[in-house]
Amino acid sequence: MKILLHICCANCAIYPLERIKGKGDEAVGFFFNPNIHPYQEYQKRLDALKQYSERVGVEVIYRDEYLLEEFLRNVSHRVEERCQYCYSVRLEATAQAAKKNAFDGFSTTLLQSTHQNHALIKETGERFGQAIGISFYYEDFRKGWKRGAEVSKAMGLYRQQYCGCIYSEKERFMKKKVTKLT
Predict the structure, then answer these.
(1) Is the dihedral of CA 156, 161, 165, 169 positive or negative?
(2) Dist. CA 13–CA 45, nearest whole Å
(3) Which helix (H) or strand (E) holds 180?
(4) Residue 159's domain spans which residues?
(5) How far apart are CA 21 and CA 1, in angstroms?
(6) Per residue of the chain (182 residues), what is the pLDDT tens digit?
(7) Lower CB density within 10 Å: C or N end of the chain?
């Protein structure tokens, strides 16, 4: 099976790529993350993925578009539903690219994070897979989070501290501030 794997960052790509290849399937990465804020953060994640892919020989398709304004227009009036939008825009783009380039299926490294809504990611991926006519490959990659962290640290890759959007960045710092006050 040839899978197009949406990659949010190098850290989260390590275990899913190892797992897919370990099962005898082929994986090609797909970088498209219009939600990441600020631009410097976006660039750090992009650069880390390029470093990783060059070091381990993983092919990656880069849809290098910084679409922050579009992301904000679509979530600013429904902040609590931002993750649904974020999953949708990235998984739809991955499914379309997979179909266009004759892949057998598509998946996402978002499935490695313990902070993501796996049920919603799975439902969203399956919905776009059905609508576009390509299989969504679901696997719970969370068990490999530690492996990804260890390898990324050993390689000296940039390791982000929040999901990516301006709202998750705010939550990261606000939690610390609240913790310090209590």
Answers:
(1) negative
(2) 11
(3) helix 166-181
(4) 2-181
(5) 10
(6) 999 999 988 988 999 999 999 999 999 999 999 888 788 889 999 999 999 999 999 999 999 888 777 777 766 667 667 667 779 999 999 999 999 999 999 999 999 988 888 999 999 999 999 999 999 999 999 998 888 889 888 988 867 765 655 556 656 667 655 444 44
(7) C
**What's the CATH code of the domain at 69?**
3.40.50.620
Tokens of 1: 């099976």
Residue 120: alpha-carbon gap to chain centroid: 14
Q: State the amino acid at position 92 in one-letter form.
A: E
- Which ranges in 23-165 belong to alpha helices (H)? 39-56, 68-75, 82-100, 118-132, 145-155
Q: Cα angle at 31 between 30 and 36, to 5 degrees?
A: 155
